[in-house]
Specification:
Elements (H helix, E strand, L loop, with lengths): L1 H20 L14 E5 L2 E17 L2 E5 L4 E5 L7 E2 L4 E5 L2 H37 L6 H34 L1 E3 L4 E3 L9 E2 L5 E6 L4 E8 H12 L12 E5 L8 E8 L9 E8 L16 E18 L4 E3 L2 E7 L5 E5 L1 E5 L4 E6 L6 E5 L11 E4 L23 E9 L1
Amino acid sequence: MRSHSISTLFIAMLAVASTAGCRPAALKTGPPEPVTFTVSRPIVREVTDFRVFTGTTAAVASVDIQARVTGYLDELPFTEGAKVKAGEVLAQIDPRPYQAKLDAAQGEVALNEAQLVLAQKENDRAKAIRAENAGAISQQELDTRVAKVQEATAAVQSAKANLEQYKLDVEFTKVISPIDGRVSRYYLTVGNLVTQNQTLITTVVSQDPIYVYFDVDERTMLQVMRPMYAGELPSARSRKLAVEAGLQDNDDFPLKGVIDFANNVVDSSTGTIVVRAQFDNPASKDDVRLLMPGMFVRVKLPIGKPEQLPLVAEKAVTNDQGQTFVYLVDEDDKVEYRRVELGRMTDDGLWVVKNGLEPDDRVIVSGIQFAKAGEKAQLKEAPMPTTGTSPSPTPQPDRAGSPGEAGSSTSSGS
């Protein structure tokens, strides 16, 4: 039985071998066709480094509306949230108590003026009698007449001063806006007692222009100041440094402004200095303005001198394990691997290359997935592609250690 099993296994093996020998030979394939790469030369533009900081808006003029006299509110003739002009009445305090004091002060002035007239006439009469008869009136009596004239004169001046004060009190019962701007809500209603220089009735803020305050770190401040110190750029005193800003719904920086103030000390606890920029805040035809005090904005601050730097398309740049590089084609049409240092993406979708690329380099922009360093390449040359808009790229880290977002901006093409 065992010998039969061995014979069967032997026959099966011969059948398999015979079948294998009858198979056709494998088809031979030729070498793969070389990949054609599209290459482009970098676009060279004038580029300025910048940092992005978070700032807050503030009104150029902001006034807490308080009464200058104590009294009860009779009227609040303004509309909440409306535009107001300087001199417009915002509140009316009951003027009757102050008007009564004013009337009394006017009577006091009239009384003292009458007493002055009487004292002057008595003095003049005494002088005339003494001139006719020196012994008729003593010198002491004459001095007394002169003193009464002076006393009456002082009383008139004091009464007139009180009169002016009461006139002001009556005038101050009308609470007016000292500036043009937009008024807030009613902080209290008619019938409430307001206390002089204490009770807040409402607030008024100016609208155009508007300030933006932001904190600049010490390192960035030095980067801005060193070219000025060296005479390579005009000083901030001789020109206003232009800045740009973007709102929460902006990917770019459409607002244009200028720096008009920097604090005179650096905050040693934070290592920052307060900087202020001024921006126009125009109104639409329906009187709508984009900027209001208290908003958060992103401020783009230019750093240093403009430089001519190469720019490449986003799809030409590759990242691998934290390394940024591009593939080039050298003079012998061989693929070359090149590490680069990037700046920031421009509005038309190009990366600024700070280091690692020359204007005449041929950069592979299509077929990168097939690129291998050292291999021969078939080429098709084309202009560097752009997108026309910036897709909100991820910011590059600030190598200078600034808390602001680092980047570069371009101002002209070539």
